[in-house]
Amino acid sequence: MTPRPGHGLNWVFGFGAILLIAILLAGPARAASTLTAKDILDRVDDLFRGDSSHGRMVMTVTTVNWKRSLTIEAWSEGKDKSLLRILAPTKEKGTATLRVDNDIWNYLPKVNRVIKLPSSMMGSSWMGSHFTNDDLVKESRMADDYTFEVTYEGERAGRKVIEITCIPKPEAVVVWGKLVVEVAAEDYMPFEMVYYDEDLNKARTMRFEDVGLLGGRRLPKTMVVTPADKPSESTVVTYMDMSFDLKLSLDLFTLRNLQQ
Amino acid sequence: MLRFAWRNLWRNTRRTGITLAAVLLNTAILIISYGLTEGMLRDMVRNSTQMVVGEAQAHAPTYLEDRNFYKSLPDPEAEVKAMDADGVGAAPRSYGYGLVSVGSKSAGALFWGVDPAREKAFFGLPGQMKSGRYLADEPGKGIVLGWKLARSLNAEVGSEVVVVVQAADGSLGNDLYTVKGILKAAGETIDRGAAMMHRLDFENLFVSGGRVHEIAVNSQGRLPLDVLAAKAQAAMPDVEVKTWRQLLPLLADMLRIMDGALAVFGAIFFLAGGLGVMNTMLMATYERIHEIGIQKALGATPLRIVGAVTLEALVMCLTATAAGAVLGLVAAYYLQSVGIDTTSFAGEFTFSGVAFDPIWRAAVSLKVVLWPVVIMCVTCTLAALYPAIIAARLDPVRAIHHT
Questions:
Q1: What is the ipTM of this complex?
Q2: Which DSSP state fits B195?
Q3: Domain chopping of chain A, boundaries
Q4: Residue A21: which pLDDT band, with cuts at 50, 70 and 90?
Q5: pLDDT at res. A139
Q6: What pTM does this model have?
Q7: What's the gap in Å between the CA of B172 and the closest CA on chain A?
């Protein structure tokens, strides 16, 4: 009878994670040339990052018990402001998540209330999407918070790859024990990131697929997250459209706007 | 033989009287302390089981390991019906995690979907309200909170609560509830995390399709645990039935420790009683060395002498313990019906957050009387063996000349 807080948290909180990953991975695709490991990590971090962004995506979560898709519209400004609003399905339509710095609020249209995510749940995982609240608020950069080295260079599964292994610096505030990043040797586009927990057990895998043009950038349009302990489950995010560096209204990221 | 033993006992009225009184008092004290301890243990069990846990619970196999929402009972209604037919109180419960929010405060909680009428009829928790009332029998989006949870949310009776949960189909369940009541201290889990609602409200919120995770059964002490567990298991063969001893291992351990402590106390009393009897018998034997010598000279076998002395002890013990049992029983019955008011010296006593009845009552049962009597008799008889053997080994010639 011990409750485990966060175990069943609604997964709307996780949608922000998508945006975060978007931010993490944002950045213009520069011409491929020989880059150092640091440059490669910076590029992966900057793939989806811009001064601001606006886009729509479909997130499909598959668990052993259910499968469902949500259509989400997302805005971001800088590193620390983001807003997500669910467009479909009908039951959750209008549900929104606002993140400013390290705080997360949720707007629930059914009851017309805004609730703030308690700090006790910021670090917890939740059922549903395979993201954690830490994904949502963390602002770490691999090249800054980890020590890294190229651990493999060559052919793997029929394509030329570079593998970089990142170990967190002792003082870095990160939740992972190790990151293994695999990028294409040709254009440094990410293929896969494997996350390890503090005991260096594999925690989850994020695959990047379907590279194409999004908002004028060459980006992987689909991300697939698979938890290591439940290989039959996954969260798939597919971007429908995306635009970068646009002018966003100042009051977009306010509680007043959230509850509209 | 018996008459002989009886007569011998009263040769030294004072000594035998003192030993008799010692054994008598020992027996009575043993019965009283045993009864009081039993009463306390029974109170502890009752407080811990009757409040909310019940005497046994049924869950889907492995549900207790991870409390997975999808591991629900296959046919809860059948179990409840079977228990009803046996006159055993049964309460179906559903559990789901989520978020409760009042104003700008929010916290994680474990939601309970309960059948308020059954909870009120069979369990004590609904009567333990700090403020407000327990849930109404009909659904109506009312919620009852653990007191620490309510405190952290600044919630009061009448407060509006937003609840947000991950529903069974993966969708976002959310709704507005009204705080109907706040529970008294009932253990950390409930105090900090419990948000209870009507099971039909729970079904709506969690889109749970009537999932039930737990059936708590409670015969209020009427059925022995193993019988109750067997009945619950028979009604639902595919589920995991656990008794409170398995569900509350800490309490079960504590009871075992107290049983052990009681055995040590008992041993001390027995030893004291036994030594008293041994002393009496030794003195009686020395006093009669001359006489025993004559008996031996007349051809009494050592066995016969051992028998005679032991019988003497047995007769004395039976007399003393019988009187002691009567005295102990009267006292224990008094303590059972009237009890001891502990508030004057212990204040309000709580055990794992559950407030205890300040009146400490004894529990009188057959074993409470039988064990002290039987063990006392055995101890005393054994204690008499030593002097008996000494007597039997006397050299008749020297014994006769002994004065």
A1: 0.76
A2: E
A3: 12-258
A4: low
A5: 63
A6: 0.73
A7: 6
